[in-house]
Structure formats: structure tokens, C-alpha cells
Amino acid sequence: MKRPPKAPSVTVSDVAREAKVSKATAARVLGGYGTVSETVRAAVLEAARALDYRPNELARSMTTGRSGSIGVVVGDIENPFFSLAVRGISDVARLSGINVILANSGEDVEAEKNAIRVLLAKQVDGLIVTPAQSGEIAHLKEIACPLALLDRALPELAVDTVTVDDRNAALRATRLLTQAGHRRIAYVTAAVLSGEFRGAASKINTSTVRERILGFLDACREAGIARADRNIHFGSGRSEQANAAMQRLLGSEDRPTAILASDSVVALDLFKAIRECGLSIPRDISLITFHNADWTSVTTPPITVIDQPVYALGKSVAELLIRRLKGDDRPPERIVLPTTIIERMSVGPSEA
Amino acid sequence: MKRPPKAPSVTVSDVAREAKVSKATAARVLGGYGTVSETVRAAVLEAARALDYRPNELARSMTTGRSGSIGVVVGDIENPFFSLAVRGISDVARLSGINVILANSGEDVEAEKNAIRVLLAKQVDGLIVTPAQSGEIAHLKEIACPLALLDRALPELAVDTVTVDDRNAALRATRLLTQAGHRRIAYVTAAVLSGEFRGAASKINTSTVRERILGFLDACREAGIARADRNIHFGSGRSEQANAAMQRLLGSEDRPTAILASDSVVALDLFKAIRECGLSIPRDISLITFHNADWTSVTTPPITVIDQPVYALGKSVAELLIRRLKGDDRPPERIVLPTTIIERMSVGPSEA
DNA sequence: TTCACATTTGAGACCGGTCTCACAAGAAAA
DNA sequence: TTTTCTTGTGAGACCGGTCTCAAATGTGAA
User: Fold this and answer.
1) Strand D closer than 7 Å to the CB of A41?
2) Per residue in A10-33, pLDDT tens?
3) Does residue B300 reach within 7 angstroms of strand D, measured from its CB?
4) Do A157 and A227 fall within a single domain?
5) Helices (H), chain B
6) Same domain, A98 and A148
7) Exposed, middle or buried by CB within 10 Å (0-12, 13-18, 19+), for A145?
8) Positive or negative, the Cα torsion across A246, A250, A253, A259?
9) Does residue B288 lie in a domain region?
10) Can you tell me the distance from the alpha carbon of B271 to that of B269, in angstroms, rounded to the nearest whole number?
11) Is strand D less than 7 A from the beta carbon of A349?
12) Cβ A58–B67 below 8 Å, yes or no?
């Protein structure tokens, strides 16, 4: 591989020579540490200006040990939920003069492990991760730098975490459906489970998924719906078999009369699938989804959503992490942000 | 500021000592360069494994001069257009083992300058930028590392650039409207202009904006529409006065009977505003927008869109940049990707 | 005038890698 | 056997900063 000529950059030594002082003194002025007399300071700054000196952040990081950047690993930047959260993170980071190195896990643990390894090798000062999978968290446990979790808590991991009140949100949303008379309610999520579910919610390690399901089941139990756990559908991401499963779900004789979707991407797919089946919302089927995505307010009918404070979620987790970077050593905090339900027109009475 | 204890990391020297070889030899094995005998290689690898050695990417970058990461400066990751493009970029980058450092300009030149300065200080190997504003590009000209432009070309800047056929796309879209009998057609964009417009499209330095407007004007001229330049509305971002301007536009006596929106965010705002005014699409007003955003296919009526290959846009620009990093020194390439128009139900005959 | 102390400066080690160069040992050629 | 070449290894400079330490200078107190 050919080495690019690499413009010989102006270094501290160059500036020192120009200003006729020692490298150490020039470094003090340029690096903003130690004490320097006013006259010398002015001379060095003048020389730096003349030479168009630009500090090499990498070299600085080498000695200081801190790189001034944090790594963010999200499931999928394409998902508006994550892009908004990332926006929150980077706004806060910028305010503290910290950069964000972004990595996509594609909700795949191996990719996540790899991303973390690379980010760590780049000496990021801290990490914000949205753990892709419930089961494997060994690689998260052995992270040496400050770590904060976004949207998904891991009970076994005592680190700063920001989530929303998933269980309660799911409970309230499901209640909206049971109160409208629905009995066959499906919960659809893109999350994949390692192994069989069989109603053992405690087996799900990813808090977001587990809490929501618990809330869903709470509401079902409240309404006296038996075996509600059978109506929970995992793995509804964007794939062939996920689509097929969705078609099967909607096409079956005893199809649900109401659906609670775990994110707006799944919900959009559901919305389209429902329409393709010739079904009507809310007449034939009611729909509620997590995340107040753009599109949910402009469909016909507009969709009732659980409005998560996504930007605030990103903002808070970044604030927590940065506080930690500054030396805060309080015990890990688990912030739970409240959600609100925005009732629109996608919930109707059960026809059954 | 308190210095975190900083776990003493395992270095090449540590591994060398453990394996009873010189630092140079250990480095050869660990760095994958030079020639080493099989026995020694095995010993070093074993020692590295035992000590759990992790390379320090920063130190490596120091000497090699390359950091293995590229900087990406976009207007707003929250905009689905950009998040999808970023997805394209990072997918390609990952394949080449390159990281992406993301920065948001918020479409503000000063923020853009700052972001570029910081990324350069971090020694990124290359930059992908979506220039925020037309006028100021001095800071782009003086960038020493490879630079590639995404979505927006700058004629004065001879660098790799990937755009879409904006002019032709706007022409075809506008034609769809003129052919439906529309005469009062508005073009609405979030871009802000430095100074007055007055029909002098050549004054607009950002290619995307200029080309689209030229295409729009072409079609209007073709249809014999006079003073079409009066119907071009700048600055329709998300702000109080932008909303007010939108209301004024839709509320006026001689409101347009058709609108071409320059991006899906603007279009969504327009869609909502139109509905709030009690107008109906396409009966009272026709709408076409750039970018086949999620929501455009699920509204009632679904929106006719100019489908840009956004993911490919990001993919291509990343490929171009990475090729350049590998030493390619062909003259800068300007790739123009074709768009297609997806006709849905938002264009109707003019009532006038 | 002399001593203690604070302030400013320079010399050089250091961070954790890469890489050049010299040299030793063994193989092939003469 | 001697010469030449190849291959593997070690010593140490280097990248561009930070930071420790000691020396030099200046200041106020004794």
C-alpha cells in the first residue's frame, strides 16, 4: 500500500524554534498548562500563528491517556429511534468538547463485540452501548472504561443506565386495548430470543424487552386473558421469514384484533401488511406502537403511540457518562424516564 | 480534573519480556509486518494471549500517520436522508476496517468549520462532508487530507463527489405537475440563501439546491409559466417563522395548486400544514417531494416522490474516498446517480 | 548583604507503537 | 573452504505531544 506523501505537519518543536524558546516552553503555551511569562506566551502564539500550527490530538492523547472521544454502539442508525437518540448524545458531547465515534451493531452480538474492541483500541474515554442481545454480556462486563447503557438495562451490569418506564408504558397501552374489549392481542417485537420463550419472561435478559412483555402480560392478566404469552411474537425484523410470519399472523382465522408493536419500524411493516391483507385500522384491527415516529401522525388513521422521550434519553445517558469521565464516582445511576401515550385513531372497539 | 487511575495496559514490551524476545520482534508479530520465524511467532502470540494484550490503536496511528478512521460531517443525522446515507457510509467503511467519526453541523457553517477542525486534529485519514452553505468554502479548500462531497457538489472544489441528477429529477417532477394542468407551482426548500434570490440561480453555490431550482424553472418555462422564480421559497426549516411562512403560503388567495418539496422533512411539515388548513391532497393541492421517506407511502393519499438512491449515495462516496486513501490519484470523480419518480396518489388535475 | 522562596525556563524521559539499520547464523554458490 | 546471499533478530531512533525535574532568575525577608 502506497503511503500518501503526508504533508509534514508543523510540530511544537517547529514553533519553539521559530519563537526561539525551548520545546517545553512552547508546549506549555500551546497545551495551556504550566506557567509561562506573558512576553514568551505572546511570542509563541505569534510563531504558532505564523506557521499555522495545528495540534495533533493523537499525540496528545498518547501521553494524557484520554482521547477526548466516546464510542457509541447502536443497533441501527437507520432506525429513527436511534438517530434521534444519537442526536441527543452528540449535542451533549459537543458541548463538552467530546467527539462521538459511531458504530452500528446491526443488532448482532458479534458485530457489537467487534465494534467495542475497535473503539477500545482507539482509546475512547467512555462507551455508550445499546446491548444487542440479552444473553451475551461478558464482553460488556470486562470493559475497563466507563460504560453507560442506552434504552436497555442489564440487571447484572451495575453501570449508569437510562431507560423509559417500559413496563408501565406497555401496561397502559395494553389496557387501552383490553378496555376497548380486545381479547386477542398480539405483542410484536423485532428482538430475537436465544432459545424458547414459553412464558418465562424472567429468562429475557434485556430489560426493555422483558419489561414491556411483563407490562403486556400484567394488563392481559388484569383483563383475565388466558395464555397471553402465546401471543408474543419475536424476531419481526426486516427479513423474508419475518414478513412471512407477519402474513401468517394476519391471515390466520383467529388473527389478533389488536396489536402492540415494540418499535416504529416493526409498526410500519405491520401497517403496510395490514393494508395489504385488505384489513382496516381500527375496524378490523387496532394498533398501538412504541415510539412517536414521524409517520404515525400522518397515516389514515393516525396511530396511537407510546411517546418515548428519545432525544432526552440520548441526552441523559451522555450527561451521565460525561459526568463519570470527569471523575464522578457515585454508585451507578439508573434513570427511568416517563413516557406518555398519545391517543390517536388507531384503536377501536373489538368486533368480536 | 481528576485523572482516572488508568488501568496499566499491556504493551508490546510486556509481551516481549514474557516471550523472552526483543521488543522489535514482538512488535513484528503483533503488528503483522516484517519476517519472523514460526517458533518465535507462536511464542509471542502465546504470551500475548496469556497477558491479554490489546494493541493501542492511537500509538500505532502516531507512527504510521494514518488513523484508520474517516470523519463524516452531515447536516442533521435526525433527517432520515442523512441517517440512511450514514448507514451506507459506515457499512462500506466497516468492510475496509475503517471507523466513522460522526459530526453534526446542524446546517451551520461555523459548526461545520469547527467539526472539520476537530476531526482533522484527530488525524482522520479522510473526510466526507455535506457542505452546509453555498458561500463559504474556504475551510474546505484548505483541507489537506482526501475529501469527498456527499449529495452536494461544489463546482469550485475539484474533489470526489456523489450526487443525484437533481436538475433532471426536478424537471421531470415539475413536468408531472404542469402536465396535470398546474400553473401556480411552488418549490419549497429548507436551504437558506445568503442574500436575495431574484431569479439568479447561478448565484446559488450549492449544487443540489441550484440544480433542482434550475430543473424546476426549466419545466415552468417549458409550460410557459411566467415569473416562476417568484414561487421559490427558501428557509422552510423547522422554526417559528418558517411555519408562519408556510401558513401564509397556504392561506393566501392565490395559493399554489401544486408544491414540489426539496426534502421529506419539509414535505411532512407541508403535509401537516395542508391538512390543518382544511385543504385536501390532491383535490385542492398536489404534492411531490424529494426522498422516498418511510411515511410517504402510508399517508392518505400516498405521496408521489422522487426516489433518490440514498444508501447508494453514501456507499459510493465512501468507496470513492477509501479508494483515494489507498493511493488512487486519478482526477476527482463526480458521480451522478439516477433517480426515479414513484408515482402515487398525491398529484391531481388542477382545479383552476 | 545573605538566605529562603517563588517563578520561569530548559533538558530530557516518556507514552506505545513502527521501522531502519546492523549484525549473526545458516544456506547456496564459487 | 571461502564468498555471497538470505533470513531472523536485537538495539535504538522516531512520531508529537506531556510532564518531571533541576537550574536559573528574581523577589522579599532577615
Assistant:
1) no
2) 999 999 999 999 999 999 999 988
3) no
4) no
5) 12-19, 23-31, 38-51, 57-64, 80-95, 109-121, 138-141, 166-179, 207-222, 240-251, 264-276, 310-325
6) yes
7) buried
8) positive
9) yes
10) 5
11) no
12) yes
**Cα-based torsion angle of the residue sequence B130, A107, A205, A138 in order, rounded to the nearest 10 degrees:** -90
Identify whether residues B246 and B291 lie together within a single domain.
Answer: yes
Please give the single-letter amino acid code of residue B124: V
CA A271, A272, A275, A277 torsion: positive or negative?
negative
- The per-residue pLDDT for A134 is 64
Q: Give A2's pLDDT tier (boundaries 50, 70, 90).
A: very low
d(CA A279, CA A288): 16
Nucleotide lying nearest to A65, CA to C1' measure: C15
Could you tell me if B280 and B180 lie in one domain? yes
3-class DSSP state of B270: helix
Amino acid at B27: A
Q: Going by C-beta distance under 8 Å and a sequence separation of 6 or more, which residues neighbour residue A95?
A: none
The answer on B274 and B177 residing in a single domain is yes
Q: Residue B227 and residue A324: Cα distance in Å, rounded?
A: 59
Residue B186 sits in the same domain as residue B107: no
Using the predicted structure, report yes or no on whether residue A127 has a pLDDT greater than 60.
yes
Q: Are A166 and A153 in contact (CB under 8 A)?
A: no
> Using the CA of B9, which nucleotide's C1' is the nearest one?
C16
Instruction: Inform me whether the pLDDT recorded for A117 exceeds 70.
Output: yes
| B1 within some domain | no
Across chain A, mean pLDDT equals 91
Which of B156, B149, B148 lies closest to B323 in space, CA to CA? B148
d(CA B200, CA B153): 18
The answer to whether residue B61 is domain-embedded is: no
Q: Among A76, A87, A113, A274, which would you mutate to test the B interface (most chain B Cβ atoms within 10 Å of its Cβ)?
A: A87
Estimate in Å the CA A35 to C1' C3 gap, whole number.
Answer: 25
pLDDT in tens, B195-206: 677 767 777 777
Same domain for A90 and A44: no
Say what the pTM is.
Answer: 0.91
Q: Which residue has the cell 510486556?
A: B14
- Span CA (B217) to C1' (D20), Å: 69
Residue A316 domain boundaries:
68-164+310-337
Q: Name the closest residue on chain A to residue B76, using Cα atoms.
A: A87
Smallest CA–C1' separation from A28: which nucleotide? D18
Residues with CB under 7 A from strand C: A 21-25, 27-28, 34-37, 39-40, 62-63; B 8-13, 23-24, 27-28, 30-31, 33-34, 53-56, 59-60, 62-64
